[in-house]
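Feature request disguised as a bug report, sorry. It would help if multi-protein outputs had a clear separator. Right now it looks like this:
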Amino acid sequence: MADASGQRISGWLGESALFFDHYSPWDWAGFACLRETTCHSEQLACHFQALELLSKAQQADYDLLVHKANNGPIKTRLRQIIQGSADSIAVSPLLTPKRIRAALDYPHHAQAISQLIVHYESEWFWNPAKWNELDHLLQHSDSEPNNRWMEEKKRIQKLSWWTELAGKHGINPSGKAWYFHPIGLLANFVAIEDENDLKWLTVELSTPSNWPNVPSDRFNRRINHLNKLR
């Protein structure tokens, strides 16, 4: 958990119906499905800007591309997670790889990011147009070729396998698929049941009549354990 300023907090909370909702793993609480709409040239321009690789003239030329990538569905959601609210993104500060890596050091940010499910065209799907649109950014043209970039496109084409399997085994011919964090997804269905779980704290422990259906010996062991931590 985090406070209003995004700083990590921990401790015990007294449960109240006014502040807590109950969910099962099937509620998919915290997961967000996004369809990315930005293209390769927008993303690369934004990446170059984040790495401060663009000259002043290039910044002016690619400003619109950078703006579109920085305000696309995925980066908008990442910014909301990192900054804590949608109200604070009006200025749309540039979301850099460094900021994302730093956010992953906080468990509440890492968990939220691991719950993103994104629809996007696979990098294993060979589509010449999406790579050719990067020619200008990589200073390649017919009159002044960038040989390294030409070789890289050949390498990408050679490694691409999606088209060969399109229409088979559930592979979408469009090259688009949903991407998710496998561990973040599977963890949603894992419920550890042992003597240390906190299911018995789901009701107020004000009177014995409010206690959940927990064996008394187990309950007393947990109370004694908590008392030792005081």
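(second protein starts here, but nothing in the output says so)
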Amino acid sequence: MTDPNPPAGVPSYPQAPPAARGFAPNGQQYAPWHLRVVAYIIDGIPPIIFFLPLLFGINWGALNSGTTTTLSNGTTITTMNEPPFNAFFWVWYFVGFLLVLAWLFWNTCYRQSKTGKSIGKSAMKITTVDSNSGQYKGFWWLFLRQWLLGFDFAICYIGVLWPLWDERRQCLISDKATSAVVLKDAK
């Protein structure tokens, strides 16, 4: 709408109509919460797959490293030793930790800064963009967003449930602090 009596010398321009609920100003739909959750789960699968052998190795080593002793009265005593935390374990653990960090930096920071999508978001056809410019967020903004996501989880999951009732479907801390929105891809 234009102002019928603009101040002298100031041109009046019509204002853009407000965006409909659930839609960004550019007309794209904000990503539903369930798509974001599934994308997050998909992104978490590779680190879990890498650490499963480590966990099985610890348990297998503990179960198979016990000693059995038979007392003179015929009673058998079986003791379980501690898991074998030797040099191999610590090297494996350290390499695993570095691989998980590399995965997180590549998938959630680097890849999203170039494409707007992590592996999980690509599978769910959703994109993270800046709410003001519509451009992909930069690497360090995405790093900060991922770090702040921990606070969204820490406050009894309220922050990650926030998109269920938020007009722009943003997480309470991580998305709002970094001005990020997640949009459904256009078909």
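Even a blank line would do. Unrelated, but nice: The mean pLDDT is 84.
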